[in-house]
Amino acid sequence: MDADTALRPPRPVALLLPGQGSQYPHMARGLYGQVPAFTEPFEEVLGLLGPPGEEVLADWLAERPAVDIDHVSRAQPLIFAVDYALARMLTAWGLRPAAFVGHSAGEAVAAVLAGVLSLPDAVRLLAERVELIADAPPGGMLAVAATPAQLAPYLTAEVVVGAVNGPQQVLLAGPDPQLEQVAQRLRAADLVCMRARATSGFHSPSLADCCRRALPGFAGVRLSPPAVPLYSGRVGGELDPGSACDPLFWAMQPAEPVLFAPALDALLSRGPHLLVEAGPGQGLTALARRHREVACGRSAAVPLLGTRARQPEADRLDVLRAVRALVEEGHPVRPLGLDELAPAAARG
After folding, report:
1. In this predicted structure, what is the pLDDT of residue 21?
2. What pLDDT does 347 receive?
């Protein structure tokens, strides 16, 4: 810790919670069964799913899963479980997040952590949503290195801007074959684009019907204003109490665009933060590091996990590196149950 760091108070921590597209095989598996603070909340989520949760767990552990991880029936529950378990692990170790930033499916996890709805309600609604989305038209998402304005001539009624992640980092979304037709037009115009890891047109009109059919599931669900600030990709800023308590807001969230870049702008306009990506991959960390407030050093971003499946020890070392950054910042985080599992060299 340098002298400047020692003199200033620790920057508040905002947890970044990623969604669809962040998944990869065996993500976080090195923590499961080894770190109780991760294992218990992870099993709690899958347990609330009932028998389908057992199937999700079996495929997550299998070398050759029966259902591919990119399918909505695997990606959505696993992303939710990993995000939730990582966040709960950090809080069990003493971290007190000052804010949550949800991206796509990660916003539902952020809502639970911020006290908007209970975990049992969120998992039940997740299961219902997965079943409805599985019946939606096949489609996907397309990452494009361009601004929304540059992409306007290529959009159609079906293919729309599904996410704004940065100044020139946009995801288009929609059904196939229309999405692929747009991709061909973009490539012909020398615009760089690549299919994202999604088998449905998330955050596009192709999911609107199934989202409307999810609305009755909110009957009897208690929704509350956030107890901790929640920066929403749906609104592109801090979630207001009215939206937080509106069932239609949450039911339609998977069909509406994700405004991650404006949400991050809103958070960092409040002052410096230490951003911790509590989920699989490092996609949100990469986006955050390009933000002007992080690039200049006033804020910082660190991931908890790697970007792909590796040896189990790698997950634990990644988490320890993030914990070290939190401790050096001045946050009283004690990784109980993890230190003894890591090689002595990593503990320094």
Report:
1. 85
2. 45
CA–CA distance from 114 to each of 64, 97, 279 (Å)?
Answer: 36, 10, 16
- pLDDT of 346: 45
Tokens 């320890």 -> residue: 320
pTM for this structure?
Answer: 0.93
Residue segments in the chain with a per-residue pLDDT below the cut of 50: 3, 344-348
- Domains of the chain, start order: 3-136+203-347 (3.40.366.10), 139-195 (3.30.70.250)
